[in-house]
Amino acid sequence: MNARIEDYALIGDEQTAALVGRDGSIDWLCLPRFDSGACFARLLGDEDHGHWRIAPQGADTCTRRAYRPDTLVLDTEWETPDGTVRVTDLMPQRDRAPDVVRIVEGVSGRVTVRSTLRLRFDYGSIMPWVRRADGHRVAVAGPDSAWLRAEPAVRTWGEDFGTHCEFTVAEGERVAFVLTWHPSHERRPALVDPYEALESSVTDWRRWARRCRYDGPHRDAVVRSLITLKALTYAPTGGIVAAATTSLPERPGGVRNWDYRYCWLRDSTLTLGALLTAGYQEEAAAWRDWLLRAVAGDPADLQIMYGVAGERRLPEMEVPWLPGFAGSAPVRIGNGAVDQLQLDVYGEVMDSLALARDAGLSPRPHMWAMQRSLMQFLESAWQQPDEGLWEVRGGRQQFVHSKVMVWVAADRAVRTLERYDGLQGDLKRWRELRDEIHREVCEKGYDAERNTFTQYYGSRELDAALLLIPRVGFLPPDDPRVVGTVDAIRDDLGHGGFLRRYDTEDSVVDGLPSGEGAFLACSFWLADALHMTGRKKEARELFDRLVGLANDVGLLAEEYDPVGGCHLGNFPQAFSHIGLVNTALTLYGDDEAG
């Protein structure tokens, strides 16, 4: 088992994704969708829970690896006493069925390579029946079927409940493997040419990356983050999952292990802003349309997250046969936070739709009617306590960030009516609501003694989400209360030069055992807030350090442990990469370049 989360790279086809370790093993893959059962679950268990390793015989970790520039095609190389070999991994854009393509190429000398494939469906719990058919190894169990072939053909054999093969490659020789999944009741899909798939994947990704409008410092990191967001997109619907994984721990050995293979409304505004500003109008429109479909219905039933196609039922359960990454149990699938009340998401939805309208995305006929319904619900519900954006499991509170985002909802409704003719709404009432929320937050959510806003009304605890106050326009950046809040959060929540979400050690709202790493999205928010409050040199220094936390192929997890020097949480994390893109645009956008 790989010891570190950052040992992994990502490949994907915009419907699902796989994690490839530095040892050449694919240790995580859910088929056919991000949220389907995993057929490779070694990431959260051991080899018997499913994996596929291709590497030189007797070799351990690779010598070097890298994505081909501006693509999601991964090259991994080993230098051995007998020569050098390269494995190229990709998942081509699917026609009908998902394929994993692995091309082994001799670079120098003559190297013996071994492939070990252990398919285990349903998160490692189901061992398939394997047979030969039409030059393939075919694995079938219940609804799942997977076909493995090699070009040119190599000898394979079954051993230790796995499929093995061994062959040699000399300089210039190649052997390509293709693993294809399809429903077991359907006929085998058409064969994919692995070399054509490689060529077209490289071409398509580079064409997409060229659309990026950002041309400032750390451009490579920004493009890599945008490619990662694209890879985490479920292309049929436009939904973007928070991460490709479930249950990677926020604290090794702990219980803060959650399933992030779903789409959070909270990410919508920041995602839209990143995509629109970077030049990806089509992807922004698809995300906006996914959002509209997902939230359609009774505003009182608005959820904080949905499935990739907008599914509402995401029941949380534990997977007891998986021991968890580094022994971090329980492993969870589904997410119980789906049933929480988090009032901030109403603000995020209203902000996203206002941003989409202002950016010129073609409005949908029902969009404003839906926004009016959301506002009608908030008029009677905004004073309720909720679980807040961090989805605490210790009970509801009057979270300040939630109230600020309800203010955002009212503010965006007012602005929309003021800017666009022909829309119906009670402008006077919404202005009054906006003013009332603002007064209450400033009275009950602000600690005048310490000159800082607090996590919830009457508390002394702080929350990194309060750094968003100037970004959303609740107060101007030069307001002394904003500056005081930024300073207090940096002092109290700083962790190894980065930032925690809140203090889990003494929190009365968390409801979980203490301990987690620095939260990368919050650390990017701190860089934004420092920049907005005039401390541009400090902001850029922090941004440089944050970019430096990415692993060797440019990926970021949810959190970082400054003490252990390792990544924590689900991986790669969309929120972290959104933060990187937005902070780059904030610090070095058109008005700030040079």
Layout of strands and helices, then pairs:
Elements: E1 8-12, E2 17-21, E3 25-30, E4 38-40, E5 51-56, E6 64-67, E7 74-80, E8 83-90, E9 99-118, H1 121-124, E10 129-133, E11 136-141, E12 144-151, E13 156-159, E14 162-170, E15 174-183, H2 194-209, H3 219-231, E16 233-234, E17 239-240, E18 263-264, H4 268-278, H5 281-295, E19 305-306, E20 317-318, E21 332-333, H6 344-358, H7 367-381, H8 400-419, H9 427-444, E22 446-447, E23 452-453, H10 480-493, E24 494-495, E25 498-499, E26 518-519, H11 520-532, H12 536-547, E27 559-561, E28 566-568, H13 574-588
Antiparallel strand pairs: 1-2, 2-3, 3-4, 3-5, 5-9, 6-7, 7-8, 8-9, 9-14, 9-15, 10-11, 11-12, 12-15, 13-14, 16-17, 18-19, 20-21, 22-23, 24-25, 26-27, 27-28
Distance between the termini: 45 Å
General form: globular
Rg from alpha-carbon coordinates: 25 Å
Structural class computed from helices and strand pairing:
alpha+beta
- Mean pLDDT metric: 94
Poorly predicted tracts of residues: none
Fraction of residues in H or I helices? 25-40%
Q: Mind describing the biggest β-sheet?
A: 15 strands, antiparallel
Plain-language structure description:
With 594 residues, this protein is of the alpha+beta class. The protein is 30% helix and 23% strand. The chain is built from 13 helices and 28 strands. Helix 5 (281-295) crosses helix 6.
Based on the model shown, name its key terms:
15-stranded antiparallel beta sheet, 30% helix, 594 residues, globular, alpha+beta
